[in-house]
Amino acid sequence: MRERAADPSVRAGTGTVLHVSSPQERLVAQLGRIKELSGLSLRALARQTGLSSSSLSRYLTGQLVPPWEAVVALCRAVGRDPRPLRALWAEAAEAGAAPARRRNDLPADLFDFTGREAECALVEELIRTTGAAAIDGMAGVGKTSLAVHVAHRLVSAFPDGGLYLDLQGFTPGQEPLEPHAALGRLLGALDVTHPPAGTAERAALWRSELSRLRVLVVLDNAVDAEQVRPLLPGAGKSAVLVTSRHRLVSLDAVPPVSLEPLADDDAAHLFGRAAGLSLTEEEAVGQVLRQCGGLPLALRMAGARLRHRPGWTVAVLAERLRATPSRFDAAFGMSLQQLDTAQRRMFRLLGVLPGTDFDASAAGALADMPPDRAAAALEELVDAHLVQEPSPGRYRMHDLLRQYAADLAAEEEPRAEAALRRVLTHYLAQAVAHDRTLPSPHRKDPAPGDPAKAMAWFDLEYVNLVACFDTAVRLGMDEVVAELPQAMRVWFFRHRGTDDQARLLEAAADAAGRLGRDRQRAALLADLGFARAAAGRLGEALSAYETAERSGPDDDTAAALALRIGFVRRDLGDLEAAQAHFRRARELFEKLGHRMGQSQALAFDGWVTLHLGRRDEAAELARASLALADGPARVTGLVTLGLALAPDDPAESQRRLHEALTLSEQHNLQHNQAWCHNYLGVALRIAGSLEKALDHHRRAFELLEPLAEVQLEIDFLHTYAETCRVAGRHDEALALLDRTIELARELGRPYDEKLARAAREAVRAAR
């Protein structure tokens, strides 16, 4: 099995065990029979029913209870009446697995949203008729407010939820979010935990996932059309709402709606609501409106200033605003004047805070004040419209205000860098504390705490943690740079494919080297190698592993490195070198008294020994592995033993492989389930049961498809193609081998390309 699937840090969960008669499992069994009756592959059945193949895979594996419409579509595909399944479907849905998890990431709607009736009506009509609209206009004109307001009005028409993503097109101190990373976050919101490596593949998967959902997607703060284009939904009932300071004229499928500053009547109404007054001083009100330029942000702040000064008239406010040449400085500066010294300092420092949103503890670390005082200061800033609170306890700043605060900090905060260092230290301490509660093979005794809450914290703060890391690099804070990726180690493992991981680890290893921490550098390089291997970059992975070996690793890291180098050598086709490293890993794990490590090393030693043609020796190594392993750690040994026995004892071979599959299902290890199905196909081919073998190969690919796991795909393609060749399906075999060659070239795996080319020649000769 591949390293990532067999890694002992995979946490056990609840798998699909069809012999247990829960409502959901009975429904899964019925859906499986429907698929068998169809005689179609997962992709073909998905096309026929109009479902996405990834969603269909989740229905068939019990990860989601399908919507009733999907059950009807599946029944109709095989000419069956769906009505007998209605009660079972309702029972499964009621038992706890909802038909689909409704997600709503939309920020809170503004309670004082004013005017814009024509623009709201136009945007709503475009969403209903074309499924898309792009709101453009100058900074501060209210684009995001309008988009969020309309989204809240429409979201009930989108039963699968509302997604919101800030593309950071004009956020001070932030680079615009690249489409590749944006697609990763959007797919993550749809529970796609392992997105494909390529941007085009991610975009295709995103469109596929949305094709059978009805989701409203708000893409806020886009820098240009090229950033947005890969993020647009394709066919289906989902819709997208985009905001940008630029008119996105080249997005033909996304009609533009341009916002102008508020007309005087609407501006006066909003100003009056913000001030909490019935306005009678028409001339003074007109002066305030002109000074604010019809911008909702400036109007709210001016109104808040007047509300906090009950002794002032509108004329006094207008006079104060006229004293400042810039309308932005006038509105923003007036709001600052109503705050005390500590609150004004908090505002200035928030302009240099890395990341997007934040909580009171981060603001407190930044301003060097206790969280309760920081929370009170933030409430005053919210009341003054200087800070937004999009959800309870989470705060953010409008881009204009962030830039204004940063400019003030540059002029008035000589110790702004010290504040930055405090907040970076704060985030590192928080990450370390949450990481310690997470179970890991590298940690014998996790700290008390709720692992689910810890993972949720990392999910929430991930963007901020990356921004803090980049700031630490800029400031030369090697301590933070070296330690933060290690504190995110478990989170990164469970979110493999995260775009930032390799970049962070590389910089962290360099920082550890500068600090003279050789063992820490070795551990970081080992993780870097793992990230590169997971991305299919085997040469770079091997380089990182070998550098780590030369860096003086501790005993645990040295043993893990030997195992991981064996994986890379195996994938590069150097089986003898792989075997030597697996045996070295076994020796090191044995000295450490690490039974699971010994078991893994023995199992993979058996795997390469089998592929070297020594079946009896491979079987003994597999049995030795099984004697040391418990639970899902037995899977690799069972598969190796099953394949070793296949030519001489087909029944025992298949029993062992089914045992491995059952373990994988019980522990919800989808990579391992796919692996077991693939090699059940091999064992059945050896036994002469070619149709059953092909069924298992197809099932392996069905399970693999939503995982976007190209390295496993190469392995499966080799074996599936050989089964097709033996079954006389020569055209299918050639297509599979052509795909193998394409992938091998992309991933730099000449050994796999050589094998596939030789197999292709054999198939052509047999036609």
TrEMBL record:
Pfam families: HTH_31, TPR_12. Gene3D superfamilies: lambda repressor-like DNA-binding domains (1.10.260.40), P-loop containing nucleotide triphosphate hydrolases (3.40.50.300), Tetratricopeptide repeat domain (1.25.40.10), Winged helix-like DNA-binding domain superfamily/Winged helix DNA-binding domain (1.10.10.10). SMART domains: HTH_XRE, TPR. Residues 39-85 form the HTH cro/C1-type domain. It comes from the Bacteria. PANTHER family: HTH-TYPE TRANSCRIPTIONAL REGULATOR RV0890C-RELATED (PTHR47691:SF3), REGULATOR-RELATED (PTHR47691). This is NB-ARC domain-containing protein. It comes from Microbispora hainanensis.
